[in-house]
Design brief:
Bound molecules: S-adenosylmethionine, thymidine-5'-phosphate
Radius of gyration: 21 Å
Largest sheet: 7 strands, mixed
CATH architecture of the largest domain: 3-Layer(aba) Sandwich
Helix content: 25-40%
Oligomer: single chain
Strand content: 15-25%
Strand order of the largest sheet: 8-7-6-9-10-13-12
Number of strands: 19
CATH class of the largest domain: Alpha Beta
Distance between the termini: 38 Å
CATH superfamily of the largest domain: Vaccinia Virus protein VP39
Length: 417
């Protein structure tokens, strides 16, 4: 079943509405990255869409051309639980610290987290104001946070909700969201909602995978249905400026393989724009992020990366080695489908998320097993399908290594590590 819900007609930019959206990378027909399948579902038709990206030459936003209805992505069975990663837990503890030292200024005003998931960050900032609220449309993960005693509204964040939040909890001194801005298809409406909910001196902080890292690491597997956009500081500044908002600080952070944390406020705010914004805009300009040619070159390198991965796996298979996948990630869905890697290549994929175990990978139908199954009978090679968690996984799996096992990664090119 091919079911792209929304396709940009004649390649018009979703945000600035100009007909200057240039397609550059086609990753082919793709299932929903987190739509893991039960054994009964294996014989049913699978939903697919065209994973196709474009670059807008007018507003510089890199975006999906065909998109999937968010209701099909964020629901009562959302597969990603933020708290699976200790590294992310530490990361959010550090962010909570920054917020308390630098951003928090009036405990009467609200603090809002968009995409609060299972409460990994929300619980660390909920002491700052009695009006700290998480917004989380995926009800199963929202419930985990609610069960920790956190205040969570299980809805999509938008202008209507922003208006209600102001009435119920006062304007916001802070709106924060990690790995969620890129999940919101209508960023013009998001900017409108920010204007509605923010106090005049309020701050917004978002962190998302950074386009420059995606391009320099050839991390094409960051491109999937949930990520409607791939941000640069250039494209976000352009977007927010159109809506009376302004970035005043940016910071590159290492999580999820390279992300950008942006700090913003209303244009008229007393906060001054820091040098970090000016510097990053210059770096992006020097790296060619405003030129279509850079994206075409990236697409070319992605094709070569696929060839090198397939060749490495072929070689190991021909040598009779046992290979498995490690981490049933959303990125893994992209890699496996784009490179045509199925159960004939990977015996299984192991993952530490209990709700994924016993299911099958979308499109490629490889069984997902527990980490305990992996440890009970080590293979020769484990291809890490969540390269962004490579260090954490490799540290945990010292026993696999000491018994002669080796990891495979495909970033930036296929190799044994
Ligand atoms: N913030 C967490 C983190 O960084 O680990 C969760 C990130 S997860 C990739 C994205 C979350 O955003 C999901 O839990 C999803 O349900 C939620 N989400 C998606 N669209 C949203 C929207 N419009 N408003 C609020 N949350 C949204
Ligand atoms: P994601 O890239 O879609 O966020 O998924 C990452 C997956 O990696 C998630 O299903 C859990 C899995 N994982 C492990 O199995 N072991 C680990 O140590 C870590 C950090 C993640």
């Amino acid at each position: 079943m091919n079911g792209s819900i929304s396709s940009i007609e004649n390649h018009t930019c979703r945000l600035c509405d100009k007909s200057t959206l240039r397609p550059f990378l086609d990753l082919g027909s793709m299932p929903i990255a987190n739509a893991f399948l039960s054994s009964e579902q294996l014989s049913e038709p699978e939903y697919t869409f065209n994973l196709y990206t474009g670059f807008c030459e007018s507003c510089f936003m890199v975006q999906l051309i065909d998109t999937v209805d968010p209701n099909l992505l964020f629901h009562d069975n959302y597969a990603y639980f933020s708290s699976i990663s200790n590294v992310m837990d530490q990361h959010f503890a550090a962010l909570a610290n920054i917020i308390s030292n630098e951003i928090f200024y009036d405990e009467e005003l609200s603090v809002i987290e968009i995409g609060s998931n299972d409460g990994i960050l929300l619980e660390k900032i909920s002491g700052y104001s009695s009006n700290t609220i998480g917004i989380e449309p995926s009800s199963n993960v929202a419930e985990v946070a609610q069960n920790k005693g956190l205040k969570v509204v299980s809805e999509f964040f938008n202008s209507d909700l922003a208006g209600k939040l102001v009435m119920d909890y006062n304007p916001a001194q802070l709106v924060v969201g990690a790995n969620v801005l890129c999940h919101i298809p209508d960023l013009n409406e998001l900017a409108h909602a920010l204007n509605t909910v923010l106090d005049d001196e309020g701050v917004f902080i978002f962190e998302d995978p950074y386009l420059l890292d995606i391009m320099s690491k050839l991390a094409y597997d960051q491109i999937y249905d949930e990520h409607f956009y791939y941000f640069s500081v250039t494209s976000l500044s352009t977007l927010f400026e159109r809506h009376g908002l302004r970035l005043f600080r940016v910071e590159q952070i290492p999580v999820h393989g390279g992300s950008m944390r942006i700090y913003g406020c209303k244009s008229e705010s007393r906060r001054s724009t820091e040098q970090s914004v000016v510097n990053q805009l210059q770096i992006e300009n020097d790296k060619g992020l405003s030129n279509l040619e850079s994206y075409i070159a990236f697409a070319d390198s992605v094709k070569k990366s696929r060839l090198s991965l397939v060749a490495l796996l072929d070689k190991l298979q021909n040598e009779g080695k046992r290979i498995v996948g490690y981490a049933a990630s959303s990125k893994g869905t992209v890699i496996l489908n784009y490179c045509g890697i199925g159960a004939d290549v990977l015996e299984y994929v192991c993952d530490n998320t209990p709700s994924k175990q016993g299911l099958f990978t979308p499109g490629t139908h490889i069984p997902i097993v527990s980490i305990e199954s992996f440890a009970s009978d080590y293979p020769d090679y484990a291809f890490v399908l969540a390269w962004n968690h490579m260090k954490e996984i490799s540290d945990k799996e010292s026993e696999f290594r000491s018994q002669g096992g080796r990891f495979i990664t495909h970033i930036p090119e296929a190799r044994i590590v």
